[in-house]
Write a structure and sequence with these properties.
Helix content is 18%, strand content 30%. The protein has 407 residues and is of the alpha+beta class. The protein folds into three domains: 132 residues, no CATH class; 90 residues, Membrane-bound Lytic Murein Transglycosylase D, Chain A; 94 residues, FlgT, C-terminal domain (Thrombin, subunit H, Beta Barrel). The chain starts with a helix and ends in a 6-residue tail after the last strand.
Length: 407
């Protein structure tokens, strides 16, 4: 008995939904590019020749022996659940110096060696420093002589497919964020097509339901549905850096816009996946089937030059944040921020009175380190970072710099 038409339709709907769920994670930056326009990325690739030379020397030398953790193992078998950060923490006092230990050049920092569960990492120590390498199977130095009059067939070796390469940090900490948040230009968001009505006149729609959209949808057939969030302002200047928008879900074009009886007829969209219910007023942006942000794990590394800025906001409704929470910072591609960079957090020093001086005077106490950030999503003028460690609560206005090099 052949499947019924309704079953076939449902099967196609499920397949399309799965594909679009993937597109949500892969295509958010493309929606941003449509909104904000093409922005020239000024990333670490524009480093000066002297900075590049310094980085290459670090690659060839590895790290000094004093940079190793006191209890650094001589080897480590990669396990499921390991991350670049957790492995680096096993071997180093400062985990963000992982690229030098692993011997990565500038290109490999952005697209590091693929490390998979089951591989054996070996720590190699010399008088000049230490490096980490994958254990290699021994191979014969000479091939046996050919046998006359015998036709040799190519040797085929079957290898099991690798289980996924380990990521920089646990993906479960940032994947929900990547699927649900993006930064857009406020003016472009205000001008984007919007949901104006539903078939039954309801205010909210769910997955599998339709919505009517007014505005120019272009030639795209798949879309992200956005809801305006909080503005991101520079804590120092008050300048508007971007608009945080929540990704409500995805939708497919069912029927293009038109006109009837001299009146405009809005386009019809089918909501194919949902992070939450969509509603009248939500904005619609294209969701092209491409990955503009890359999904390779970026190795945790320090910026090549000096960088300084401030925490803009805590993601969510909290007033302060701790380890494994997400913050927005007021630096982006324009200032050379890139994914994988580790930044040092500082808490501003308080003012105090000198109680024993001949004359009372006010003192400004020095700033103190308060934690580490790892950047995982970068826009033109703002970025999002995961708090790797926090000695005390992180609040908007806290400043950050490049990490202080340690031995």
């Amino acid at each position: 008995m052949s499947p019924s038409p309704s079953r076939d339709a449902w099967r196609q709907h499920v397949l399309r939904q799965r594909g679009l769920r993937r597109l949500v994670q892969q295509g958010l930056c493309a929606g941003l590019a449509w909104l904000a326009g093409a922005a020239a990325a000024q990333t670490i690739g524009s480093a000066s020749p002297s900075q590049r030379a310094t980085a290459q020397r670090a690659v060839s030398a590895g790290v000094p022996l004093t940079a190793l953790a006191p209890d650094a193992p001589t080897s480590h078998t990669v396990r499921s659940g390991d991350t670049l950060w957790s492995i680096a923490s096993l071997f180093l006092r400062s985990p963000w110096r992982w690229p030098a230990l692993w011997g990565m050049n500038l290109a490999e920092v952005a697209n590091p060696h693929r490390i998979y569960p089951g591989q054996l990492l070996v720590l190699i120590k010399t008088a000049d420093g230490a490096q980490l390498r994958l254990a290699q199977a021994s191979t014969p130095t000479e091939l046996p002589p050919p046998i006359p009059d015998v036709q040799r067939l190519p040797r085929i070796r079957s290898l099991p497919p690798p289980v996924g390469a380990i990521a920089t940090v646990p993906l479960q900490l940032i994947t929900p964020f990547l699927e649900q948040v993006m930064v857009v230009d406020p003016k472009a968001l205000a001008e984007a097509p919007r949901i104006v009505a539903t078939p039954q006149g309801r205010l909210l729609i769910s997955q599998g339901e339709t919505a009517y959209v007014l505005g120019d949808l272009g030639k795209t057939s798949s879309f992200a549905l956005l809801r305006q969030g909080k503005p991101l302002r520079d804590p120092f200047s008050g300048e508007l850096l971007g608009q945080e928008a929540g990704v409500v879900g995805t939708a497919d074009l069912v029927r293009a816009a038109g006109s009837a009886n001299g009146l405009p007829v809005p386009a019809t969209l089918l909501m194919t996946s949902a992070n939450r219910e969509a509603g009248v007023g939500d904005r619609v942006v294209p969701l092209p089937p491409r990955d503009c942000c890359g999904d390779a794990p970026h190795a945790p590394h320090s910026p090549m030059g000096a960088i300084a800025g401030q925490v803009v906001s805590i993601y969510g409704e909290a007033l302060s944040a701790g380890q494994n929470q997400v913050v927005a910072i007021n630096r982006g591609e324009h200032e050379g921020i890139e994914r994988g960079q580790v930044l040092a957090l500082w808490r501003a020093g308080a003012r105090a009175m000198d109680p024993n001086g001949v004359q009372a005077q006010t003192l400004q106490l020095p700033d103190e380190p308060s934690g580490l950030l790892l950047v995982f999503r970068v826009y033109d003028r703002v970025s999002y970072a995961l708090i790797l460690s926090a000695f005390e609560p992180v609040r908007p206005g806290d400043r950050f710099t490049q990490p202080k090099a340690s031995p």
